[in-house]
Amino acid sequence: MAEAATTRRSRITPEREAELYGAVLELLRGVGYDALTMDAVAARTRSSKATLYRQWGSKAELVVKALRHQKPSRLSEIDTGSLRGDFHELVLREDDCEMAQGSALMRGLAMAVHENPDLLRAFRELLIEPEMEELRHVLGRAVDRGEIRADNPALDYVLHMIVGAFTARTLIDEQPPTQAFVTSYIDAVVLPALGA
Fold first, then answer.
1. Which long-range contacts (CB under 8 A, 24 or more apart) does 16-24 make?
2. pTM of the entire structure?
């Protein structure tokens, strides 16, 4: 299966793939997940619908891979020598405008994820699980450096805390997340919970 996926992907250049992902996200922002169609993506990108299905298999996979592609960098690629530094560096990879757009997009997908089993499955397999794996790697480095204890119960909830920051910022404060807010949240909530 992995070999078939690799073969499928090799037909599209990275530049073309980025163009397709950009179009998907633009459509997603404009019409939402339920109204987004492969026909609309094909028309917007001058592609055939058959090519899109051959390359990605489903609308859910295409949308989630587009979301993953837009991320500024992988957390596990950042290694400043401290957990605080790693988290702060990650926050600095997106400016306030990009952070607000990404947060709005995820809020818009929240209902669709729970109403769409295919999207939920793709979301978990292609976005949540890879993010959790990268976070475990970063937290493992912090444990190895002695910054946090391996038996700290908060280790299992770091992603929950970070997602909560974005959700609560818009719901409670009625403001978009910003670099300053997320950085202060990490310092005031996440790192103390980890004992770092």
1. 17/69, 18/69, 19/45, 20/45, 20/47, 20/52, 20/62, 20/66, 21/65, 21/66, 21/69, 21/70, 22/66, 24/62, 24/63, 24/66
2. 0.74
